[in-house]
Amino acid sequence: MNDNLEKQKLVKGISDINLDKLDPNVSIDMEVPEFKEFAKSMVDYIADYLENIRDRRVLSDVKPGYLRPLIPDSAPETPESWEDVMKDIERVIMPGVTHWHSPKFHAYFPTANSYPAIVADMLSGAIACIGFSWIASPACTELEVVMLDWLGKMIGLPKEFLACSGGKGGGVIQGTASEATLVALLGAKAKKIQEIKKLHLDWSENTIISKLVGYSSSQAHSSVERAGLLGGVKLRAVAADENNSLRGAALEEAIKQDLDEGLIPFYAVVTLGTTNSCAFDNLDECGPVANKYGVWVHVDAAYAGAAFICPEYRHLMKGMETADSFNFNPHKWMLVNFDCSAMWLKDPSWVVNAFNVDPLYLKHDQQGSAPDYRHWQIPLGRRFRALKLWFVLRLYGVQNLQTHIRRHCGYAQQFAKLCRADERFEIVGDVNMALVCFRLKGCNDQNEKLLKHINGRGNIHLVPSKINDIYFLRMAVCSRFTRPEDMDYSWQEICKAANETCKE
Ligand code: PLP
Prior knowledge:
Number of helices: 15
Strand order of the largest sheet: 1-7-6-5-4-2-3
Strand content: 5-15%
Bound molecules: pyridoxal-5'-phosphate
Number of strands: 11
Shape: globular
């Protein structure tokens, strides 16, 4: 009864809207001249922020909850001025920012940043289309198809992955490498289910799924295990060798064991450049083994894949012709701001068919003549991300991007040399790409203290890792502003922290 009264009031309220009071000539938006001033002021701020980023404390030292007292309890009823918003960036935001683009930031892996990509994101924000199908904004799809061809050629991908080869293959921009791993897993799952159904007409889909098993190295990124959980299938971590590399023989042994137990191997993730230590699985061995048993090969080169634009690193992707899908993140090491994760599939139809739902409102007349990228990914909506790839590739050119990669690798060697020359330290494993894994000779406890001192001083930022119970520190060269003297500075900081640690 009460409910009905409430509903009646609501309907009456809506029909009571007085259109005269909603005069469309009274602007609620920012006016164009103001937008231009605001945007110019922001561009000045961004340039100043990035050019002077080295002078800021790299690691934020605020405590949880620092921000709430700095801003009002609720949103303003009436508009504020953009000048006031600008003032609050330094007061409210910057104290809580960890400066990922500072040359003093050496944690995780790099995340990319460049002026061309920032400007492209402005344009993407202005066009603000949702390019889920070709017709939803043809340029959004078509530029992406061509950019993935450009990029594929730049890293020497076999032509079967490229749309321009005229075959089935093609590329897509995913948000992250984790999504690419999941999308590939779902494609592999759909393919294997269909194959097995033809062999065992009486097996239910649930029976087949319960027997599916996938593989990765014990050193694979946590997103691989997560893809298994999300995809509702078993994934096995196969032990890597003494160089933290997954080898063909170990993979074959695991597959054979599972076949003997009546399981159905369907998916293998080969990592080129692991997160722990930038180790490379042996694709040239693992690929043919997986092919022999009808197992889909997905190559995760999230960080290191950018280095394949330099021909001298391409030996590490030997065996790529055996892969079904390949992924790397231009948003990590190729100067394209997050998010831009490039993925190629030799035969996208497995993924497209696995995700194909076709409501009337998403259909269009040109279906089939260009990709409808909504079928290649988890969400429906997608931004115009190819723009930033296009801007970066054109405004840097391949040669400058190669220089960026080579400089970073050179800085890692510079750091490793300093480390080797100090007898208190040791390098852990090989120095691959722009990552140096190192530690104080001694126990894990001492190295944990060393890291606490380094990060506690706040002048540089590193994170640790552990392999086979050996705790070590990871020195990743991350910033495009890094110069040799920054590496010297970081080394001096580590020495000071080591002195403090050794005194204790
Ligand atoms: N795979 C590897 C080898 C990585 O190093 C990372 C992140 O560093 C990922 C996957 C996850 O990347 P994303 O954040 O793009 O999902």
